[in-house]
Design brief:
The chain contains nine helices and six strands. It is about 40% helix and about 15% strand. It has helices spanning about 25-30, 35-45, 50-60, 70-80, 85-95, 110-115, 120-130, 170-175, 185-190, and strands at about 5-10, 15-20, 145-150, 165-170, 195, 200-204. It starts with a strand and ends with a strand. It folds into two domains: about 5-60, no CATH class; about 110-204. With about 200 residues, the chain is α+β, with helices and mostly antiparallel strands.
Length: about 200
């Protein structure tokens, strides 16, 4: 998150709070005498422009740059134990939900998307990964892209969507081989012993 500065603008002198270091707005930054003089010199050719070769060499210097082991360890230690609690995440979620968010367009998001992006779903997913020690239940691989799969399908068993016992950790390849992946879930429903009635799932 950018640092917020509280000071007087160098151009107009007004007190302001913002991310800008010296000016309260872009207008003041553009009309500041020193900046205007610097811009005039650049237009007149007094200040040399950066050539394409200089820009290319600067990009090459930054290409492939990696942090040292010491720096990576310091960053890792600095972030240990700083994960927000579930209560804090709930407050943050409620503070930016519905009409409170800048992208609100009257509630047009599908209910499936709302559930899968909800905090409750993310907590369920993290709990499944933690229980299985971030290891695929089928091939026992780690360090790969993992999916939190519903043993009983998400769409047909709404009462089990957030049940940890109904979840399992699978890698992407193993998930694609399951009988309920993608459109195969409809064949699974047809061949299974379950039938769907209005809002309730019953065993035949």
């Amino acid at each position: 998150m950018p640092k917020i500065y509280k000071r007087n603008c160098d151009n107009c002198g007004n007190y302001y709070c913002g991310t800008g270091r010296n000016f309260c707005s872009r207008f003041c930054a553009t009309n500041y005498p020193e900046n205007k003089e610097r811009a005039r010199k650049r237009v007149d050719g007094i200040c040399p422009k950066i050539t394409d070769e200089q820009r290319r060499m600067g990009n090459l210097k930054r290409t492939g740059a990696k942090r040292t082991i010491e720096t990576r360890n310091k960053i890792s230690i600095a972030h240990l134990g700083k994960k927000a609690s579930v209560e804090t995440r709930k407050k943050q979620s409620l503070a930016h939900r519905g009409e409170k968010t800048w992208s609100w367009r009257g509630g047009i998001s599908p209910i499936n998307k709302i559930i899968r992006h909800s905090l409750e779903y993310r907590v369920w997913r993290e709990s499944v990964f933690k229980r299985d020690n971030w290891t695929c239940r089928f091939c026992f691989s780690r360090g790969v892209r993992l999916h939190a799969d519903h043993i009983k399908p998400f769409s047909f068993f709404p009462e089990l969507r957030f049940d940890i016992e109904n979840g399992r950790t699978l890698c992407e390849e193993c998930h694609k081989k399951t009988e309920t992946y993608g459109a195969r879930v409809y064949l699974w429903r047809k061949d299974s012993r379950y039938q769907l009635t209005n809002t309730r799932t019953e065993l035949i």
